[in-house]
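thought: fold this chain, then report.
action: predict
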Amino acid sequence: MGLVAVVVAALVHGAGTAQAATLFTDTFEDGNSNGWSSSGGSWSVTADGSQVLRQASTSADARVRAGQSGWTDYTVTARVKPTGWGGAGRFAGVAARAQGSSSYYFLAVRNDNVAVLGKVSGGVASTLASAALTVSTGTWYALRLQASGTSLTGQVNGGTALTASDAQFGSGQIALLGRYASAHFDDVAVETAPPGPTPPPTTPAPTTPASPTPTPPTPTPSTPGPSVPVPAGQADGFASVNALGQNGTTGGAGGPVVTVNSSAAFLDYIARPGPYVIQVAGTITLPTGTSDGMHNVSSDKTIVGIGSNATLSGGGLNIGLPVNDATTSPPADAVHNVIIRNLHLTGATDDLLNVQMFSHHIWIDHNEFSNGDDGAVDIKRGSDYVTVSWNHFHDHDKTLLLSHDEDAGAQDIGRLRVTYHHNWFNASDQRHPRVRFSAMTHVYNNYYYENSYGVASTYDAAVLVENNYFYSVNNPGRVEFSGDLGRILERGNILVDCNHPIETRGSVPEPSGFYRYTAHNAADVPTIVPAGAGVGKLG
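observation:
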């Protein structure tokens, strides 16, 4: 029998006691792990007498989750067989009331001969109760973890109960865990438990500073987004969201279409008011003597290269008003609704592309970025609703910066919602992206190839790293680069010849609550992304 996930009404007898109802079972006999969402490790269904779920890695904090985020009082049971340890103090077990991949209660067998009832909060494990138990690889252990109100009870092989009381997590999914331990898992079941002596606590929603304009609700982090394609040629990700008085990102649609092949004509049209579609033909060398070679783009513009060799060289593009760090609310004339596509931007004396000062609804798609003196694409100072997609980055150091400074919270907190997808980081060095303060950063289906580091999250930035392929990356993902800790949730990524795992911490909003997207399997990324990213590939 494979996965069964049902909610059944409890049967109430005349005496007033409730009979347990089955919420979920999985024996993996159907040969798959459908319904489970993994974070870290290497998970697959294999044979061990019967079909079991195997976690094969000892070098990762590995978890798979299933069930509903709204489950409160229940009992989860499973059989667990450790098969290898990645060091001292490693464990394998089950979890209840999982808030995500890094916050949950757990019952586990640990390789220092201990059964432990504990919790992980923000990625940090703590013991609530423990008991001596002979623990060895190749042995099956029957685990039973009950959460009822604030009461937690765990048993291994029907032995002495481990008990504790904790009110941090009131509801959540179940999970199977291999914390730097490989293991087999089987016969997972979830049943309702009688309500505890106190009602389960609720977790308050995260708050952000008041804004003069409404923002979309923050969804509960739970399941991956739907596999729904966005029509070709239209902005997707956060650039597609209706917000701040702008319905998605349409650029210069509806305005005059002009073709330019000189810097004078190019600079004239990008600064004009009103919508324009500006087609770039051939190579345009931009002046470098004014404002560090940065040239301002006004609202409602599409700047698109013709063919496969349209190039902007020598200077960079600035999307945003002049810098004013005293401004903490979006001005009415903030630059918005700009599309940059099918261009090779190279050789700038500052940034290749800079987005700043509350600019919003920006789509940066199918471009090539190389050899800039500073950032390739920097997004900062309260900018919002931006998508960076299908771009090729190479021969560049500081690639993607999201928020420029640790003192920028007054402008950035509650903003900097950015999607990075299907980009090819081809031996570019660092910042892919490096994130501060962001309310939500979605990094999915990117191909990382021989980089110093991938994603860095700090200053409470919320980052989802999903279905990316990392090859020969020293640090694929870090939750602390400098300053206060950030947050990273990771799922579905593949790491090859990387020196460190992706670090995770805290909870992150679910992007499917904001927009539709299709996430390819990470294994397909090294083929799909180089074939489609960069200039001359809009088709």
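thought: worth noting. The first helix runs from residue 263 to 271.
final: tokens above.
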